[in-house]
């Protein structure tokens, strides 16, 4: 009987400490753009935001040793969240976004190329690392310009057993990439 109670306690501890893989929820972009302001009378038409990743739900994984133990996922519509956030930041930067495509100074298409967040509980410095890669295609007059933006960051978080703990890093990566795109557009 004593052995059985030890087994039950051990099983409860293991179940309680296993990774809870709930969908990661990305917060909406907050008004934190503080870069350059757009030249006067510059208009932007945000034509599209497309998530070009093969697996639109996967955003990374939990690494245990050298194996991917758990895939991190999200059910958020990253295209919509990015488009809403970018539109908001463009307005903060002084761009006029209430314009038709054929009347805009800049026509912008955004492509989400990569989202990758990796958590490992075996590191004592940065145990959570993330990367987001964005491509922006900007049409200005007869020219089409392509810009690539890569945000990478890492930090240490206390041992995590829930996928929601990676959400703040993911939000920071998205916000920083939006700010970089807007800053680039102000220089065109």
TrEMBL record:
Residues 1-20 form the signal peptide. InterPro entries: Uncharacterised_YajG. Keywords: Signal. This is ABC-type transport auxiliary lipoprotein component domain-containing protein. It comes from Sulfurimonas aquatica. The lineage of its organism: Bacteria, Pseudomonadati, Campylobacterota, Epsilonproteobacteria, Campylobacterales.
């Amino acid at each position: 009987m004593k052995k059985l109670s030890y087994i039950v306690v051990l099983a409860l501890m293991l179940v309680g400490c296993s990774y809870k893989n709930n969908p990661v929820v990305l917060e909406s972009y907050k008004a934190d753009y503080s870069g350059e302001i757009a030249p006067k009378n510059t208009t932007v038409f945000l034509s599209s935001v497309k998530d070009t990743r093969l697996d639109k739900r996967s955003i990374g994984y939990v690494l245990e040793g050298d194996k991917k133990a758990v895939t991190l996922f999200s059910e958020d519509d990253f295209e919509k969240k990015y488009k809403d956030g970018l539109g908001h930041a463009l307005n903060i930067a002084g761009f006029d976004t209430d314009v038709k495509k054929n009347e805009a100074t800049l026509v912008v298409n955004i492509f989400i190329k990569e989202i990758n967040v990796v958590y490992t509980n075996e590191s004592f410095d940065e145990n959570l690392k993330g990367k987001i890669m964005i491509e922006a295609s900007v049409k200005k007059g007869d020219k089409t310009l392509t810009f690539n933006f890569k945000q990478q960051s890492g930090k240490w978080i206390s041992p995590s057993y829930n996928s929601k703990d990676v959400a703040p890093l993911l939000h920071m990566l998205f916000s920083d990439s939006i700010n970089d795109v807007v800053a680039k557009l102000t220089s065109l």
